[in-house]
Amino acid sequence: MSAFRRATGWGVAAVLVAVSLSAGPAFAETAEAAPALAPAPVDLAIGVTHAENPSVPEGAAWTEHYFPSSAPSNNGDPVELHADVLRPAGLAADVKTPVIMSIGPYFSHSGMNSDTHPLHTGPSGRFTDLIDGAELMGRGYTFVYVDLRGFGGSTGCTDWLGTGEQADVVSAIEWAAAQPWSTGSVGLYGKSYDGSTGLAGINEQPEALKAVVAQEPAWSGYDYLVTNEVPRTNQVDTPLAYIGIAALPGVDRAYQQDGYDIPADTSRYLENAAYEKTHPECAETLKSGALAIDRASDFWINRDAPSHVDGSTVPLLFTQGLTEQNTKPEGMQRYLSNHAGEQRGWLGPWDHVRGNEVDAEGRLQMGRAGWFDEVTAFYDAHLVEQTTEITTGFVIQDNFGRWRAQDTWGTTAKTAVVPLQPGRYLDTGRGMVDDDGDGGGEPGTNPSPNPLLAVADGEDVDAPTSTDDSLGILSVSHPVRADTRLTGTPAVELRTQGAGNASIQLWDVAPDRANAVTINSTVSKLSADGATRFTMLGTDWTLKAGHRLAVTVGTIDWGYWVPQPSDAEVVVTGGSVSIAVETTTADVATEGARAPYLDQYLRYFTSEKPFPDSPETFTLSAALGSIGTDATTVETGSSFVVLGAGYDPGAPVTVTWRGESLATPTTDASGAFSLTVPVSASAATGTATVTAVAEDGGRSAFDVTVAAVVPTPTPTPPTPTPPSPAPPSPAPVPAGSGSATASLAATGLTTEAVPAIAAGAGLVLLAGLALALLRRRARPAER
């Protein structure tokens, strides 16, 4: 590579996934292979076992069911839903079990996202990994696949997470809860699209829904196809891909080989599977609705899950790859903030994978073991025990592969507001690349060949090079003094003049600026009133001490989006990026290894050119420095001590007293300082404020009351009493009755104490005489 990747660096990483954005279904994964065969008889009446049909998981018995959805299709037809039910083999029909269900578009008997022409029909194998890995049948669970409207054996028009599909979710949950073999407790499980239907279940909150597990869901339908009114390249192709999935035919042929006698799908299933083909209006409705680019349109409002989760308390266990290139962390924090129930999450630098998924070398794709253990404990607690205890918690892998555990995510005590530098750029939408990397092509055209399609064909394609090597308008921090974590969802405000689009990227810049890593990126159409506000991707990225944060603003670059450039100058007059920041000193380490995808991400998103040597324009710090004092009241002519703690190490802190600068101490290695403040004898009394300002502008203050010195009065000694006449001599007493020594002993004093007492009495007398003389001298002269 010879140039920086700008906003499209995130699009480039899409080459690392299954290229579903243009050539296949958006949320889909690789279709399951035809199962291995073993001879066995068939008896549909009592449920089909693995011995009778190898598509059935071991230990399970498969039956099919149909039931109505509560909402009609958008063409007015009633909707019939199809379910494949897997119960523990040999379990009597009236034995009640809790139910785990997945509701989605991927369960056709003829393939997950394309017709794989299987040898025979059978239930989907999409979540056999869960059924086997979590030993669901042995644990006494029933697992149910339900086809959304228009998919598999269900009728109706596909609805792309709309109100129709939301009604399907509720209908399926209520149907399962009402079956004679159900305890009435239902949990949802899924990944990607069928993870998003889990979110729909949380939003609708039917009484029977007790828990949801959602891996890598799309948090908002809008954000999957459009970014802040800028269409993505998959805005057209993704709906078309799902229209294709809805047309999968089922299996119309029997299989009678190797001792098997497996019939074809029933006529009811095959007729339902053909619904989309016989109702072309379904495809037209979906295609036209998905072309809307306004988030506030009716089509997208109905599909914005974060807007509809308010108040729901259904427990949620989820995973989210923070470097995901398919279902990105868009709208995630908004959803979690609005959700009122238990939340447990795995977050980290992986792509579109499952919690238990391994790569070709057997390494866990997320890097952490125990996914099925956590899932079963979660379901046991909420479906079996039906606990009301909330055990919210997150485990998070950072960009160094280190895992930590914490109670919440994205909510910190400090938000850094990064000021954006003014500047200007030409909104050309330069997304042109060529194979030579020389920036060929005409402005406004798409790259040819398309690197996404090239990778889909198995070619080794490097990330594209932008025609315009400029990064746009740069804002660069001073090196951070301590490890600084950026977390949560950054919020952007741009103040601009001129029409067009904007891309914004965050960069982790090496200390010597030899390279930089793109850590967050998004785009937006600029608002006509010149004030554009939007959020970026959810993030969790730590800048090592000595690194810099850079923010770039410019035109949208290369192919992940389909912008309509204005070809006009855009003037940025200012703006900001607000980012939640925190230190790493309180991290609680937990088990887990490095996600393999992290190294791929760093390789693809690390620039090969030195970062521009632009001026540093802001200071970034996660420190929560504060000051206190050893005394809240001081006297004039004395002093007090300002104690500072919680600052970055080696950082200057400006301390002011009554609005005037006192000093700028530098913190020690622990981020603390001590400063003695003298108070002059002539200082004004009253309350005064001491303020400390950190180098990032953070302030801390306390009040001190200054009091005048009150003189201590000199005590007036008493006037000496004239000596009394000597007492008469005592009468003689019998010998041995007492003596002077004996009388002293009776007082508790010894003879050694007498001289001291006498001396003391003499001093008192001298003091009295001296005072008398002073008084005499102080009298005015007599006339």
From TrEMBL:
The UniProt record lists the keyword Protease: no
Highest taxon, organism lineage: Bacteria
Domain Xaa-Pro dipeptidyl-peptidase C-terminal: from-to ranges: 376-582
InterPro entries per UniProt: AB_hydrolase_fold (IPR029058), CocE/Ser_esterase (IPR005674), Galactose-bd-like_sf (IPR008979), Ig-like_fold (IPR013783), Xaa-Pro-like_dom (IPR000383), Xaa-Pro_dipept_C (IPR013736)
GO molecular function, one term: dipeptidyl-peptidase activity
Entry keyword set: Hydrolase, Membrane, Signal, Transmembrane, Transmembrane helix
Position of the signal peptide: 1-28
Protein name in UniProt: CocE/NonD family hydrolase
